[in-house]
Amino acid sequence: IFISTRSSGLTAYCSHLLSFFGCYGFPSKLGKKIMLALGDKDQCDMSFILRNGQSVNVHQVVLLARCPSLLPPEDLSDKGKTAESNGSSGRQATDKCQTKKEVVLSAQVDEQALLKLLDYIYSGHLQAEGDLVRKLKMLAKRCNVHPLLQLLCNKRPMWASSMISFDLSHALGPAGHDLSDIVLEAKSTEDTRWTCSYCSFSMPHVHAHRVILSASCEYLRALFQSGMQESISTWNIVRYNEVPPEAVLYVFL
Ligand SMILES: [Zn+2]
């Protein structure tokens, strides 16, 4: 019932009540799938280096959608180069060599609190108690994760609050284009006048992200992981027959 309810008000109040029992956030089907990607070395594109030298693998697109404060400051010079390359061909948009970033965290960042925060970012909920809750409050405040901070402070949700939702659709917008590593293209022979704010490719398409698609769709996960790489063009494009890419993503998310 908890996972299947679509009432944001009911969800907010259920989460509020559960916060008194050390459960913060709201489980969701998508969150359960995305959580499986946490720590995945193959598809991660960033690592947090902790004060003890250990590293935690993360995915920039998930942070972008759920907690952008954890992303390093944008490199304006790199962005300029990317925008320049997009002008010549949309297919070049995904032909980027994605190097793994390493972010060394301040020694003041509590490791246990960070790992719990990542649980929340990837799954939509976490369990904590005692002193860890106090550390999480500090971290959630510094990272501007207000829905979690509200739960950690046991604040009663406002009327018609939409504070609890596991939504990654922000990653499909302009903000997520630079992190896109796959294009979903609708296979069409008709003359389409598709306009994209990121590239000049004229076929209907969406700039997507492998980690989210892999977690959401068994077929694509098999396609990305198995020896079926020949099904994906050298330009990292997956073609779908007669299915608008937005519709495909809507089903996945
Ligand atoms: Zn495009």
TrEMBL record:
Compositional bias segments (type: Polar residues): 83-92
Family annotation (InterPro entries): At1g04390-like, BTB/POZ_dom, SKP1/BTB/POZ_sf
Transmembrane segments: none
Gene3D superfamilies per record: Potassium Channel Kv1.1, Chain A (3.30.710.10)
BTB domain location: 44-130, 180-253
Pathway field: Protein modification; protein ubiquitination
SUPFAM superfamilies given in the database record: POZ domain (SSF54695)
Renumbered residue ranges of the record's region Disordered: 75-95
Record-given protein name: BTB domain-containing protein
Species assigned in the record: Opuntia streptacantha
